[in-house]
Amino acid sequence: MKVLTNLELEVVVRELNDIILNSKVAKIFLPETRILRLDLHKSNIGKSTLIIDSGKGIYLSEFKLENPTTPPSFAMFLRRHLNNSILKRIELQPGERIVELVFQTKIGEKKLIVELHSKGNFILTDSANKIINSAVIVETSKKTIKKGKTYEYIRSEFDIRKVSLHDFTEASKNWAGTSLIRFLASGLKLGKIYGEEICNRSKIDSDKDVNLLSLDEIKELYSELTKLLNKFDSRSAILTENNAFPFELLKHSGEKMNLFNNALDNLYSKELEKRAQDKHETTHNRANVKLGKNIEKQEKLIYELTKLSEQNQNLIKLIYENYEIISNILIKINSARKNYSWDEVESALKKSAGEETKLLKKINRKDSSIILDLNGTAIEIEIDSKIENLINNLYTKNKKILRKIDGAKSILIKFRNKKIVLPAIEKPKLKRQIKREWFEKFRWFYTSSNLLAIGGRDATSNEVLIKKHLEVNDLVFHTEMSGSPFFILKDGRDSSKLDIEEVAIATASYSRAWKLNMFDADVFYVNPAQISKTANPGEYLNKGSFMVRGKRNFLNVKLKVSIGSKDGKMIGGPTSAISSQIEEYISLIPGERKKSDVTKSISKKYNHSSEEVIRFVPNGESKLL
């Protein structure tokens, strides 16, 4: 995975400062041990996701990383300290790969120091750099990172941005005896690729010994270094097949990107996706191996049980074939034991001749049993027992074995079927996060003329909408009845008659009129100057309510909304506005179907979550057209 150089981090940090400063921290995750994810929210911008890959780099991402079901303790710790804080500054340590994120919390500033060198680390400190906690504790002769200690920054020997020709020449002397590329890549911390770029542009052999460089070559190299540094201030990032750069290089060209962050996001996300796919494939293969072993185990068990069953059946057969002889042995021993000792009984049996002597192998005095040899198979029987008991025990044992065989075969069939239907590996893909705009927490739609219309969802959002987002050139809409949202038509004073009608329809449709099953309603619109939070003398304004003074412009409109999907997002609003953006949509009017049923029906059709759909379904019962 690409490791960002200090100069590349300069570009990233500059872009981050332009985009996400003053964002609120919504949540913090640790998708992997080394990766920190900060979900941020900024007014009028919406959500953004900052990914910090410890030891690698930092960038904004549009892709969704899977998070562990149980958050790691360090993630929970950071949430306690940084959730709802405001990101005030992002700074890069000069000449080093250390980024400092400064957050304003309720109890003062806190810093998240991100070390991107070596294996990396995340360190949370207070405003005085006293360490509150860190992902990794470090205790060496040169460095200590531990709770309670003061974080000490690594100070770079020189800042490449300030290197003069004299500095460049003196630095090259310290690398005498090494190659030019090593001096540029390691000595000046440019990295190999940017070092090669300087060599390519100066047309000087990268393997040339530094102390063999002429004065003219030193000057040429310094000149190309200056030009290269200036390019890091440009905004012409590219994405190649296996890399990303803030600008195009002689031997590296690719797709142009608006921001270096975007190029890095595509690069890193592709690598993270590949890592996830490799992990998925390994897990899948392990499952296959385990399944194969289970099948082999069951097959072996069935073979062994079948063999044991056959032995039992053969033994029963031998007992029946030698029934009379075994019976005679037991009768003789039991009869003799009444009057003689074991020694006398055994002595008498050894002297006797016949089939009994051939079968009898041993007498167990301790257990009062005998061991017989039936055609090479040894069998033990108690002297006081009956042969029928022995046969019954063998039959019972064999039934248990047969049941085990049936069970093992049933399990084997399941394993084999599982292997047959086991789907081919479907490699996981990182999904691009749907970018939510700041206004999407309200009711919203774009009119036929592409003007933004925003409406309140409840008393609180009505209050926020009018107080924070109403501007001089807007128009404000409301119905004559209470329980109506305020709608704002941005730049409404330059709108067409159709735009005004569409916002009026939305205002009526998302008002109490829908719940009352009305089919039309009166809506008025006014200028922002006519809206006030100051009540008339003796009156009181509830939350979400405002005074409207002066002339009102009225329209009577039919209640109807349409809902569909565009670019992976659900959209909804007046039919004329929605039909100007998409061809396929579902229209609603007041009716008899519950809001939940309508939402489920639409979400199923467009394969979107109910949460996305319900934002555009009016409160009350509806009819699908």
Describe the structure.
- The chain is of the alpha+beta class and 625 residues long.
- The protein has four domains: 6-145, ibrinogen binding protein from staphylococcus aureus domain (ibrinogen binding protein from staphylococcus aureus fold, Roll), CATH 2.30.310; 160-258, Helicase, Ruva Protein, domain 3 (Orthogonal Bundle), CATH 1.10.8; 295-421, no CATH class; 438-624, no CATH class.
- The protein has 17 helices and 31 strands.
- It has a six-stranded antiparallel beta sheet with strand order 20-21-23-22-24-27, sandwiched between helices. A five-stranded antiparallel beta sheet has the order 6-7-8-9-10.
- A hairpin with a 2-residue loop joins strand 17 and strand 18.
- The radius of gyration is 41 Å and the shape is flat.
- The mean pLDDT is 88.
**What does the overall shape look like?**
flat
Q: Largest beta sheet: what is the strand line-up?
A: 20-21-23-22-24-27
| Helix content percent band | 25-40%
Kindly report how far apart the N and C termini lie: 53 Å
Q: Could you give a short account of the major beta sheet?
A: 6 strands, antiparallel
Count of strand segments: 31
Q: In angstroms, what is the radius of gyration?
A: 41 Å
Parts with pLDDT < 50 across at least 5 consecutive residues: none
Total helices: the number is 17
Structural class call reads: alpha+beta
Quick check: average pLDDT?
88
Q: Give the tally of structural domains.
A: 4
Q: Into which percentage range does the β-strand content fall?
A: 15-25%
